[in-house]
Specification:
By secondary structure, this protein is α+β, with helices and mostly antiparallel strands. The chain has two domains: 42 residues; 148 residues, Nucleoside Triphosphate Pyrophosphohydrolase, CATH 3.90.79. The protein is 22% helix and 45% strand. It is built from four helices and eleven strands, in the order ββββββββαβββααα. It has a four-stranded antiparallel beta sheet with strand order 1-2-3-4, with no helix packed on it. Helix 2 packs across helix 3. The longest helix has 15 residues. The relative contact order is 0.17.
Amino acid sequence: MTSRRGPFVVHGARTVYDNPWITLTDHDVSVASGRRFSYTVVGFRRRAAGVVPLHEDGTVTLVGQHRFPLDAYSWELPEGGVEPDETPLQAMQRELAEEASLAAADWRQILRLHLSNSVTDEEAFVYLALGLTPASGEPDDTEELAVRRLPFAEALAMAADGRITDSISVAALLRVHHMAVNRELPGGLNDLLAAPR
């Protein structure tokens, strides 16, 4: 039985790999030109989420860790996977406490992203966290994290010049800067974040 996905005709599909985190599904597809080929999709069992922990003084908290797939150290915003029994917001509230030992009084969803839409179905939800206070939390036992609080302008420069390469972090920092330029942030944050350096 065939089905359609936009311009693609799907003649069949089979799962070629399956574990608790991802699946690989091989789709037998054809297009209007008549070409028939295999389109393999990486399916993610968890959605991704990230948060910009923005302090009242215009600083932001980043976490650093070694990323195994790239064999490289990465500075990024607190992020994590959304467990099946939680919402993206609940996941980020948990991750903010676990990774940065922070809680927030004000949460705003600022982005929804598709992280690599040519080969995966992974989506991410990104939040802005305001009204930050200390919280207790422990990272996962597979993580060794460093925590760094720095001026937002410095984090933005790191995203612009390639010192931050994590896609959620780059997009989120640019989004918050855009919000500041358009005066969408509360209090004096617009002036702190939008001012040229």
